[in-house]
Design a protein that fits this description.
The complex is a heterodimer of chains A (about 300) and B (about 350).
Chain A: H1 2-7, H2 14-23, H3 25-39, H4 47-63, H5 68-91, H6 97-116, E1 120-121, H7 126-132, H8 145-163, H9 165-175, H10 177-182, H11 187-213, E2 216-217, H12 224-234, H13 246-265, H14 270-304
Antiparallel strand pairs in A: 1-2
Helix pairs in contact in A: 3-8, 3-9, 3-11, 3-12, 3-13, 4-5, 4-6, 4-11, 5-6, 5-11, 7-11, 8-9, 12-13, 12-14
Chain B: H1 2-5, H2 7-29, E1 60-64, H3 71-86, E2 90-93, H4 101-113, E3 118-121, H5 130-138, E4 142-146, E5 157-160, H6 164-179, E6 183-189, H7 195-208, E7 216-223, H8 228-241, E8 245-250, H9 253-264, E9 273-276, H10 280-288, E10 294-297, H11 300-315, E11 326-328, E12 334-336, E13 342-344, E14 349-352
Parallel strand pairs in B: 1-2, 1-3, 3-4, 4-5, 5-13, 6-7, 6-8, 8-9
Antiparallel strand pairs in B: 10-14, 11-12
Classes of the chains: A mainly alpha (about 300), B alpha/beta (about 350).
Chain lengths: ~300, ~350
C-alpha cells in the first residue's frame, strides 16, 4: 500500500481508497466465515451461488412490489437455510464438504436462474443504494458502510476464533477431527452452525452486491467463490485445516483488493492482473512449504554435526 | 463451546424475530418499487455550448469496451484511439476480460481517479454502471456511450451505429426476401439485457406485424450470451426444436459466426437462411461456401472515429449533449445531436459475395 501511494498517482486519494475498499466488500464479508470453515478443515464452494440466489430473489421480490425491508430478512433466512442444507449433508449424511458444496454451487445458481431468469432488476431505493456506495462513507471517515460492517464482524470473528473455547474447538477439529470428538467437542453441531453462518453471510453479501451495482441478476458474483478462497489462502490459512489467523485472512483480502486497484490505475491489462493474482497465490502456498523444507534440512544438518 | 452449541435454535429465533419485525414495519412504512423515485439528473446543467470553441489539445480519453478481447470492439476502440491523434489527444483502451457489468464498475472508478477528460463506454448492463458514471459526470468528466447504451441519465451522448429502427426493420425485410415471405423464423441474440439487441428485436417484432409478413412467424428468441460455445449450442437447439424453421436472424457478431459454423457442417446448410450482423473477416468463409447469402453491419472503424470526435467536442465545450447541437467529426463531416443525446452513424452496409472482398475488418 505504501509502495502504491508513492508510485501511483491517484492511489492515496481518499475517494480511491473508499472505492477500492468497497470493491472488496463481498469478498471480505464472505472471507470471514470462510476462514473459520477452512480452519475447521471444511470449505464452502457454494457461497457465490448463494450470493447470486440472494440477489435474484431480492430482484424478483422487488419487481413484484415487495417492501425492501421485508426482502432483506427473507433473503437472509434463505441464506441460512441454504447453509443448513450444506451443513446437514456434511454432518448427517457424512459427505465431504468439497463434494457437497460443488453440488449446491450448481443447485443454488440454478435456483437463482429459475427465480429471476435472464432478467436484470434495477431501480432499488436510492437511500439503500447510497448506503452501499463508496461515495457516502461513514461520516467523518473514508470507510464505506459495507466495509464498516465488515470491520465490526471481523473483530467479532477474531475474538471468537482466537479468544473463545469455540474458536479453539475449530482449530482442534481442523487439526484432528477424531481427536476433537473424543475430547468431547460437539463436532457436528459446530460444523452445522458454521455452514449456516456462511450461508447467512453469503446471502448478506448478495444484498450488498445488488445495492452496490444497482442490478439484481442471477449471474451476479459468478466465480467469486474462488477469489474468496484465494484471499483466505493468501492470508496464510492452511487449506488442510488447523492453522491460520483471522488477521491473516483480512490481510489476504486487502492485498488482492489493493493489488487489483494499483494494477488498474497503472493501466495493466486485466489478463495480466489475473496472472499476477495467480502467481501470488502459488507463491503464497509454496513459501511456507519451502521454508519448512529449508529449516528441516538445516536442523538435520545441525543434528548430524 | 457452550455458546456455539446452542446457537442454532437461537439463530432461527433471531431470524424469525427479524422477520416478524420487518413485516410489521413493512405494513406501515415499507420502501417498495411503487414509491416515487426522484432521479436527480447530474448532468452539467446551465453550462452553455460554445460551437466555435476549438478542440482542446492533449485531451485524455478512455474507451471502456464490454470486454477487452472482443475483436469487434477492438476495431472500434483502435479507430477511436487513432482519431484522437488527429486532434492531439491521448486515448487508450482499458477494460475487463469478462463481459460482466460488475467488472466494468471498477474500471470506471479508476478512470475517474486518473482524471480522464472523457470516458467512452459500451455498457454490459445499462443500470449497473450508472452510479459510477454519474459520479464521473459530477467530477466534470464527460461520458459517452457507444455501441450499447447506458440509462440515458448516466451519459451525455450515445453514439448509435444506425438507428435501431432501421436495423431491426431492415433485418426482417431482407430475411423475408430470402425466405419468400414465408415460414418460421427465430432470433439468436446476445444477452437478455443488451440494450442494443433488445431495441432491434423490438423493431423486428413491429416490422413483422405488417400484412406482407402474415405467413412468417417468430417462434423463439434464444440467447447465446455473446459466448461462442453457447451460441453454437443455442443454434443447434433451435434447429432441433423447430424442424420447420426457415431462417435464423442473429444480430450479434459472435452469434452469427457461431450459428454459421454450426449450419455449415450440418444438413441444414442451404436450407435454413442465416442473416444478421457480422464482420466481413469472420463471415467471409461462410459467404464463400454458401452457408450465408448476406449479412450486414456498419463500419466499426467509423463508429470509433465518430465516438472519439464526439467525446472531444464535449470535453472542449463545443456541445453539451442537447438536441440540435452540431459538431464536426473530422473526415465524417458535421453531425447533429438527436433526441436524448443520440448521434447516429448512418445506415448499415450489406455484405454479400459481390462486395465482401472490398472489406478487411
Amino acid at each position: 500500500m505504501l509502495a502504491g501511494s508513492g508510485t501511483t498517482d491517484g492511489f492515496a486519494d481518499i475517494t480511491n481508497l473508499s472505492a477500492a475498499l468497497n470493491d472488496t466488500a463481498e469478498i471480505a464479508l464472505i472471507a470471514l466465515p470462510m476462514t473459520l470453515l477452512v480452519v475447521a478443515g471444511q470449505v464452502d464452494l457454494s457461497v457465490a451461488s448463494m450470493l447470486g440466489l440472494s440477489s435474484a430473489l431480492a430482484g424478483a421480490l422487488w419487481d413484484a412490489g415487495w417492501a425492501f425491508e421485508m426482502i432483506v430478512p427473507l433473503c437472509l433466512v434463505v441464506g441460512v437455510l441454504g447453509g443448513l442444507l450444506n451443513g446437514w449433508l456434511v454432518t448427517r449424511v457424512g459427505l465431504p464438504a468439497l463434494a457437497v458444496t460443488i453440488g449446491t454451487l450448481t443447485l443454488y445458481r440454478g435456483l437463482a436462474s429459475v427465480v429471476l431468469g435472464n432478467k436484470a432488476v434495477s431501480d432499488f431505493p436510492e437511500a439503500y443504494a447510497q448506503w452501499a456506495s463508496y461515495t457516502e462513507p461513514v461520516p467523518g471517515t473514508f470507510i464505506p458502510y459495507p466495509i464498516a460492517v465488515f470491520i465490526v464482524l471481523a473483530a467479532l470473528a477474531a475474538v471468537v476464533l482466537h479468544c473463545t473455547a469455540a474458536g479453539r474447538a475449530l482449530f482442534a477439529i481442523g487439526a484432528q477431527e477424531d481427536a476433537a470428538r473424543f475430547a468431547g467437542i460437539r463436532v457436528r453441531r459446530i460444523k452445522l452452525v458454521l455452514f449456516a453462518v456462511t450461508g447467512f453471510m453469503a446471502s448478506f453479501a448478495g444484498i450488498v452486491y445488488t445495492l452496490r451495482y444497482g442490478s439484481a441478476r442471477a449471474d451476479n458474483g459468478l466465480g467469486l467463490e474462488l477469489v474468496v478462497i484465494a484471499s483466505v489462502l493468501l492470508g496464510g490459512i492452511d487449506f488442510n485445516g488447523g492453522k491460520g489467523t483471522l488477521g491473516g485472512a483480512v490481510a489476504g483480502v486487502l492485498l488482492i483488493g489493493v493489488l487489483n486497484n494499483l494494477l488498474t490505475l497503472n493501466d495493466i491489462s486485466s489478463e495480466i492482473q489475473v496472472i499476477v493474482t495467480g502467481v501470488l497465490l502459488v507463491a503464497s502456498v509454496l513459501t511456507p512449504r519451502v521454508i519448512a523444507l529449508v529449516t528441516e534440512r538445516r536442523d538435520r544438518r545441525a543434528a548430524a554435526t | 463451546m457452550r455458546p456455539t452449541t446452542r446457537s442454532r435454535p437461537r439463530l432461527l429465533a433471531a431470524a424469525a424475530a427479524v422477520c416478524s419485525l420487518s413485516l410489521a414495519l413493512a405494513g406501515c412504512s415499507g420502501t417498495t418499487k411503487g414509491d416515487a423515485k426522484d432521479d436527480a439528473k447530474d448532468k452539467a446543467q446551465g453550462v452553455k455550448a460554445d460551437p466555435d470553441a476549438p478542440l482542446k489539445k492533449g485531451l485524455k480519453l478512455a474507451f471502456l469496451p464490454k470486454q477487452i478481447n472482443n475483436p469487434y470492439e477492438k476495431i472500434v476502440d483502435e479507430a477511436g484511439i487513432a482519431a484522437a491523434k488527429e486532434y492531439d489527444g491521448k486515448a487508450k483502451e482499458v477494460g475487463p476480460s469478462d463481459a460482466k457489468a460488475s467488472s466494468q464498475v471498477g474500471y470506471i472508478n479508476t478512470l475517474v481517479q486518473q482524471r480522464q477528460d472523457a470516458i467512452l463506454i459500451a455498457a454490459n448492463d445499462p443500470n449497473a454502471v450508472c452510479g459510477p458514471l454519474k459520479q464521473a459526470m459530477k467530477q466534470k468528466i464527460k461520458v459517452v456511450s457507444y455501441d450499447s447504451d447506458t440509462d440515458k441519465d448516466c451519459r451525455q451522448l450515445f453514439i448509435n451505429q444506425a438507428s435501431s429502427e432501421e436495423i431491426g426493420r431492415s433485418l426482417i425485410r431482407r430475411t423475408a426476401e430470402q425466405t419468400g415471405h414465408k415460414g418460421e423464423i427465430a432470433i439468436l441474440s446476445a444477452t437478455q439485457n443488451a440494450t442494443n439487441q433488445n431495441a432491434w428485436i423490438e423493431f423486428m417484432k413491429k416490422e413483422l406485424k405488417k400484412p406482407q409478413y402474415k405467413d412468417m412467424k417468430l417462434v423463439k428468441t434464444a440467447y447465446g450470451d455473446d459466448d461462442d460455445q453457447k451460441s453454437f449450442q443455442e443454434t443447434q437447439g433451435l434447429l432441433k426444436a423447430y424442424p420447420k424453421l426457415k431462417a435464423i436472424i442473429s444480430p450479434t457478431t459472435v452469434g452469427i459466426a457461431a450459428a454459421a459454423r454450426y449450419i455449415s457442417d450440418s444438413s441444414y446448410k442451404g436450407k435454413v437462411v442465416l442473416n444478421g450482423l457480422g464482420t466481413p473477416n469472420q463471415m467471409r468463409k461462410y459467404i464463400k461456401d454458401g452457408t450465408v447469402e448476406e449479412f450486414s453491419l456498419w463500419d466499426p472503424k467509423k463508429l470509433g472515429y465518430l465516438g472519439s470526435y464526439a467525446a472531444a467536442s464535449l470535453a472542449s465545450g463545443q456541445i453539451t449533449g442537447k438536441e440540435g447541437e452540431k459538431f464536426k467529426a473530422g473526415k465524417l463531416g458535421e453531425r447533429t445531436v438527436g433526441k436524448d443525446g443520440e448521434v447516429i452513424l448512418g445506415p448499415p452496409t450489406v455484405f454479400d459475395e459481390k462486395n465482401i472482398g472490398k472489406y478487411d475488418f
